[in-house]
Amino acid sequence: MKIGILTNDDNLGNKLSKYFKVIFSTNNIKSFDVIVLISYSKIITKKLLNKKIFLNIHNSLLPKYRGLHAFTWAIINGEKTLGYTLHRVTSHIDSGPIISKVKFKINKNENINNVFSKSEKVLIKWVKKELRDLNLKKIKTAKKQNEHISSYFRKRNEADNLILWTQKSSQIHNFVRALKPPYTKGAFTYYKRKKINVIGTKIMNSTSKGFKAGKIIDVSKKWIKVKTNTNDLLLTRVSVKGKVILNFQTKFKIGSYFN
Description:
Layout: E1 3-6, H1 10-16, E2 21-23, E3 34-38, H2 46-49, E4 53-58, E5 66-67, H3 70-76, E6 81-88, E7 98-105, H4 112-133, H5 136-140, E8 152-153, H6 169-178, E9 187-191, E10 194-203, E11 216-219, E12 224-226, E13 233-240, E14 243-244
Parallel strand pairs: 1-2, 1-3, 3-4, 5-8
Antiparallel strand pairs: 4-6, 6-7, 9-10, 10-13, 11-12, 12-13, 13-14
Helix pairs in contact: 3-6
């Protein structure tokens, strides 16, 4: 059984090419029995699905987090375990029968860039083993996904990165680490009508009462303490138009609001 990997990711493709035949277009699938999609964004047509066996490696533990930006959504939602799923490709996105999965843990302070670095190592090690052991029996006996626990997440855009200060401090912290540059420009808020990107946060044990969410409770040179729906949140790294602010006391005032 001849297996080929189809990807849009040149960097990942070059790394996997040490172990498998890697292609970058469906025009080159003719000589393969099975084509495995990894970081491949285009939809496989029904015509091709009828001609070849297509498998996909999705960056979530299916049937949860089908769709786009799965790692981002998972971090935003505070997931502690992430992973990949090898499944059959069908006409329904990320819904085909499951062949195997791999899991890895992340901690509450790891950001999206840390996760990508960690996950790539997990992925390459797992793919090497899975594809070498892959056979038609494993493909044919793949297990149907449980639709009752499935979830689907859409593509994110810049407007989705606005911080909601009425959320819990843990939710905002997860939001910030899921969007940390250079993956995006960062989660953002507004201060005196200026767009501010929040890059680093720390959850406090204290809870300031009697204030509205988003109010600046205290400011030092290195941090800004902000009121949330629960515990106070320290902003430890902030930027404006890509330039990191080195002294918060020169830019932000106690009693002012982020919104």
